[in-house]
Amino acid sequence: QVQLVESGGGLAQAGGSLRLSCAASGRFFSINAMGWYRQPPGKQRELVARITSGGVTDYAASVKGRFTISRDSAKNTVYLQMNSLEPEDTAVYYCNADIKEISGRGHNYWGRGTQVTVSS
Q1: Cα 54 from Cα 120, distance rounded (Å)
Q2: Which of 23, 2, 25, 21 minimizes the C-alpha distance to 10?
Q3: Reduced 3-state DSSP string for 102-117
Q4: Cβ contacts of residue 35 below 8 Å, gap of 6+?
Q5: Integer CA distances (angstroms), 11 to 26, 45, 106, 113, 115, in order
């Protein structure tokens, strides 16, 4: 059973920083793209940042220059360094990964989410 477990959320002041981590566990063949999405209160889930297995990154316009996504393939872990936080960054942050299973089939997985709250 593949699981994505997030950590690192919490409360921060505007202008502050937080670092999120997401580790994939279980039996699988490989991990392709990994990413972070967020769902602000009363809004739809949206892409924050994504990173391919080759290290190519993509960011939402609202976080470019403030957030940095990275991954440690040896640890099956993706990180999101969030700097210059704004109250608008308040949301539940979800980890996402495209995983190739032992069977050879690809599957998209979600973590349970971690709350990030930024106070003004």
Answers
A1: 37
A2: 21
A3: CCCCEEEEECCCEEEE
A4: 47, 48, 49, 50, 51, 69, 78, 95, 96, 97
A5: 30, 20, 35, 15, 8
* Res. 1: pLDDT tops 90: no
CA R_g for the chain: 14
Rounded Cα distance between 25 and 64, Å, is: 29
DSSP symbols for 47-61: EEEEE-TT--EEE-T
For residues 32-40, average pLDDT: 97
Distance (Å, whole) CA 13 – CA 38: 18
The pLDDT of residue 119 is 97
pLDDT over 90 (residue 76): yes
Are 110 and 16 spatial neighbours (Cβ–Cβ below 8 Å)? Answer: no
CA distance 45 to 86: 18
What mean pLDDT comes out for the span 24-34?
Answer: 95
Query: Mean pLDDT across the stretch 103-113?
Result: 95
Tokens of 13: 């002041």
